[in-house]
Design brief:
With about 575 residues, the chain is mainly α. Helices cover about 60% and strands about 5% of the residues. Strands 1-5-2 form a three-stranded antiparallel sheet. A two-stranded antiparallel sheet has the order 3-4.
Length: about 575
């Protein structure tokens, strides 16, 4: 019979040092076999670690004995005969959350996160940036018996309070809109870099992998919500909580994991804004070149003023009509574009079935950019009226992604077959210039993307704005700083679009750098760490599967970034 004690920081003599005269203290993660316990008692357990207080590495008990304070990052198991603490009263779990309390009841020491607790014994406040709040579910030995059962029966979807939950159809529409943007118009250029048949099957495979990674992210979110008894988590919080409940050596990096995911979300959305800026300018230029030619930088500069004014609107409620108009214009523009592509199609032998190895990384960057919706998956699932319908074989996620993958494949296949090696970074730039209908398509798509810029811009602003506002005291200064931030960020995307006027190159670069990190690299890492204490299935199939996806994502990240940067440099030198 053993008890688990969680060390708290206190200005008292370390009870672990006093316990060294008793049977040895054994570091544990879950249950230990009798053989491991006997090895530890006889001094043969060679487990290495780095002490969080003195930053020394070495034998566990030896380093503990030399530290003057308690270490709060580990759980210790006291065998039979070791000194035992009194059972906690029912009020002690509440006292543990106080900044003025500690394990021994001393005053003056601030509460620190208990990172040593296994998932079944902790409740994490994921909305805290620096620490976890520990909540005990019951008192005494009954906690060990009832705790795991209570956690496993916790259903996060039953604890969500939604003011305006969305139906399945609404969620499907939002999922389609979150995935279908400028990326679909760049798919013919992606097929050019891959070849007709490589692009055809590669896009299908890419869609399957990206959809599976979305399912992985949702599954990890549900597991961590049950584990920490939280109704919902977003992308960065899932990364944070997975590290918090993962291997002991990785728990110190939980805040870093959150910040990395947040940073890549910021980079991704800023990249989308740059693409939107350049897309609108190129399409307007293509229309105006029929009457009067000017450099694309002039059109970017003309757009800067209206873009800044539009993005000063802070309430998304006022942008709902704008979003509706943008969606209608996008659907109309895609329908007319299809009518142009399907007329007088040449033979399949007129285009390359397989491209060269040098251009395949560019295809990867553009294709992964097109599947840009992993950032909206968790918010959509968290806001559903019936979230159990989101997953599953015929769920909302699979239905939406099948539609998206079919649209991407069709646009890429027929667009490349129609225009061959002359296809542009956006298929709208290949439409006939003198035709009135094609001019209307360019204008409608330019207006739609211009209006959609605000929705893409809303995400990076929400990431940075709280940090900027925290540096000011008065409400007037906070509002002024938020306004200046919006102007600076819009201007920053304008400068990036001006420096890289090649639409295909910037799309491939954004996809290779940020989209691959969020869609292909982060989900397998999160899943491996989340299920570290649970298991990876028979023959560790989950581990092998995640390892292969991770290698694929890293290869695309490295080679796609390199190829995109090389193409950008080559375009500027020539």
């Amino acid at each position: 019979m053993v008890e688990i004690f969680h060390a708290r920081p206190a200005r008292v003599r370390c009870p672990l040092s006093a316990a060294l005269s008793a049977p040895p203290i054994v570091p544990t993660r879950g249950k230990l076999s009798q053989r491991k316990v006997s090895e530890a008692k006889s001094g043969h357990l060679k487990r290495q670690f780095q002490c969080v207080l003195c930053s020394r590495g070495g034998r566990f008990i030896k380093c503990i004995a030399s530290c003057s304070e308690l270490i709060n990052h580990y759980a210790f198991q006291f065998p039979e005969g070791a000194p035992r603490k009194k059972k906690m009263s029912e009020r002690q779990p509440l006292l543990l959350q106080s900044d003025a309390s500690d394990y021994e009841g001393s005053r003056g020491s601030s509460a620190r996160p208990v990172r040593s607790s296994p998932p079944d014994n902790t409740l994490v406040n994921v909305h805290s940036e620096d620490s976890l709040a520990v909540h005990a579910a019951a008192s005494g030995s009954g906690d060990d018996e009832r705790g795991p059962a209570d956690k496993s029966s916790y259903n996060p979807t039953h604890h969500r309070t939604l003011e305006h939950p969305t139906s399945n159809f609404d969620t499907l529409v939002h999922l389609l809109k979150g995935n279908i943007g400028t990326g679909i118009l760049a798919m013919p250029d992606a097929f050019k870099n891959a070849g007709l048949y490589v692009g055809l099957f590669g896009t299908m495979i890419m869609g399957i992998i990206c959809t599976h990674c979305m399912h992985m992210l949702v599954g990890c979110s549900h597991e961590l919500c049950r584990r920490f008894q939280q109704p919902s988590l977003d992308f960065s919080e899932v990364a944070y909580c997975s590290f918090e409940s993962g291997p002991l050596g990785l728990r110190r990096y939980s805040t870093l994991a959150r910040r990395i995911v947040t940073t890549f979300l910021f980079i991704t959305q800023i990249g989308f804004c740059c693409v939107y800026f350049l897309f609108v300018a190129l399409n307007i230029k293509d229309v105006m070149d029929h009457y009067y030619k000017m450099p694309v930088q002039i059109y970017l500069l003309i757009m800067l003023g209206p873009m800044i004014l539009l993005n000063l609107v802070r309430n998304l409620k006022y942008l709902t009509p704008v979003s509706l108009v943008a969606a209608l214009l996008t659907v109309a523009g895609l329908a007319i574009t299809f009518s142009y592509m399907l007329v007088d199609l040449p033979d399949v032998h007129t285009v390359k079935p397989v491209a060269t190895w040098a251009t395949l990384p560019l295809y990867f960057g553009t294709a992964i950019y097109a599947f840009e919706g992993i950032g909206v998956v968790l918010p959509l699932e968290n806001n559903m009226r019936t979230p159990e319908d989101f997953g599953g074989t015929t769920g909302v996620l699979n239905t939406g992604m099948v539609i998206v993958a079919c649209l991407y494949t069709a646009v890429g296949f027929f667009g490349y077959l129609k225009y061959g090696e002359h296809v542009e970074g956006s298929i709208t730039l290949n439409l006939p210039q003198g035709d009135t209908l094609s001019q209307l398509v360019r204008i409608s798509m330019a207006v739609a993307i211009f209006l959609s810029y605000t929705l893409q811009f809303y995400v990076p602003v929400n990431i940075v704005e709280p940090f900027v506002r925290s540096h000011f005291d008065t409400t007037q200064a906070k509002d002024l700083s938020a306004t200046v931030l919006r102007v600076v960020l819009v201007t920053f995307t304008f400068l990036l679009a001006t420096c890289i006027p090649n639409l295909g190159s910037i799309i491939s670069l954004v996809g290779a750098v940020s989209s691959s990190a969020l869609a292909l690299i982060a989900p397998p890492i999160i899943e491996v760490i989340t299920f570290y204490n649970v298991g990876y299935g028979r023959f560790n199939w989950m581990l092998w599967k995640d390892f292969l996806i991770l290698i694929f994502g890293l290869a695309g990240f490295v080679f796609g970034t390199w190829a995109s940067l090389a193409q950008i440099v080559n375009d500027r030198t020539h």
